[in-house]
Amino acid sequence: MVKTGCPRSAGSDILTRVMAQRRLEPTQAAIRYMCERFALGGHCDGRLTPIARGAMGRIWRLSLSGRDYAVKELFWGFDEAAVVREAALRDAAADAGVASPANLRTVGGRYVCTLPTDLGGADVRVFTWVEGRQVEAGEPGVIRWVGHTLGVLHGLRYSYPHVPSDPWYDRVPTPEQWDDLLTRGRVDRRPWASLLEQRLPLLNTLCAQVKPLDPAALIYSHLDFQPQNVFVDRAGRHVLLDWEDAGPSMPDRVLAGVLTPWCTEDGVVYADRVREFLHAYRLAGGTGRMTGMESFSANLAGYLNYVSAQASFSLDHTQAADMREYADHEASGALANPSTTELFGEILRAVEGVRRHGTCESGRVDRGDSV
């Protein structure tokens, strides 16, 4: 699936529903306020250092005397009930052996704190800090861990039957919406407009291949399981980060969304990784079975909606200039590197090789391994 940090609508409009921008100001007053609200204790004079950002938020390192925390500044508000469900899934996974940063609660029992307006008014979350480094997909043992971890998550069979899926993953812009976006981009002279015009036939073709989710087949899962969200900590443990996109999806679509970033590089599918991943996934209780190109619907929808959302946001002159510039850059980059069904077809062929023959190009697995 597309990289996290994508502004998404919470309702029927799949294009961006923007909010007035609020910022976390890295002042001592803001630090003290967060320390009080999250009961961090002790001496609360410290330092906030920006670490990373996406379109959805920014990660800060909160350094206090002898201890550190991760602070996530949320750019687009939050759904308290969704945050509670996400934290419950993370806790269940932790009980099953999946290492991840712990969610800290406020003194009022909530996971999100809104700072006063005079301190910037930002919505923030606080987590335990993970000291480590980001993994590379080709590192020894990583693919096995990824397959095992996703299998554990799916083996939990976590479900909220009355929670609808996010339309981000199976509803895409219509041809008329793309045309309107192009017209507005031209009028506003956005840097992505000419590339959008070139890509329109491809975008409409990809949109036509996105199939709706089956409400009866949904499980709750981590939905942004990609290399940038896995660290190795100082103890050598793999740690899964960024659970905020957790939500309902079909197991086969989550499986496709994880196989793509972990088992491909620069358009090449590594069949040995597919084999190792699927073997570990099955042994850990994974239930997903890829059925065909429809299994990649969430990959396609995520890509298409990311382009649309970023381009739409860049057209909103009420937003901060740096945020609009970031959106321009993201829209242009996504249009320059479109999702390709050819790559998905290669992944399916590798998966089919494991299912039918128990073989991949660089090795064998037991013929009992099903996919």
> What's the gyration radius in Å?
21 Å
Task: Please state how the strands of the largest beta sheet are arranged side by side.
Answer: 1-2-3-5-4
Distance between the termini: 20 Å
What is the element string, with H for helices and E for strands? Answer: HEEEHEEEHHHEEEEHEEHHHHEE
How would you classify the helix and strand content by structural class? alpha+beta
In round numbers, the mean pLDDT is 90
Here the CATH topology of the largest domain equals Aminoglycoside 3'-phosphotransferase, Chain: A, domain 2
Tally of individual domains: 2
What is the beta-strand fraction?
5-15%
Counted beta strands: 14
Overall shape: it is: globular
What's the story with the biggest beta sheet? 5 strands, antiparallel
Number of helices: 10
CATH class of the largest domain: Alpha Beta
Helical amount: 25-40%
CATH architecture of the largest domain: Alpha-Beta Complex
- The stretches of 5 or more residues where confidence is low (pLDDT under 50) are 1-20, 359-371
Please render the helix and strand layout as text.
Blueprint: H1 28-37, E1 47-53, E2 57-64, E3 67-74, H2 80-95, E4 113-114, E5 123-128, E6 132-134, H3 142-155, H4 175-187, H5 193-208, E7 219-221, E8 230-233, E9 238-240, E10 247-249, H6 251-263, E11 264-265, E12 268-269, H7 271-283, H8 297-314, H9 321-336, H10 341-357, E13 359-360, E14 363-364
Pfam family, one: APH
Protein name: Ser/Thr protein kinase RdoA involved in Cpx stress response, MazF antagonist
InterPro entries: Aminoglycoside_PTrfase, Kinase-like_dom_sf
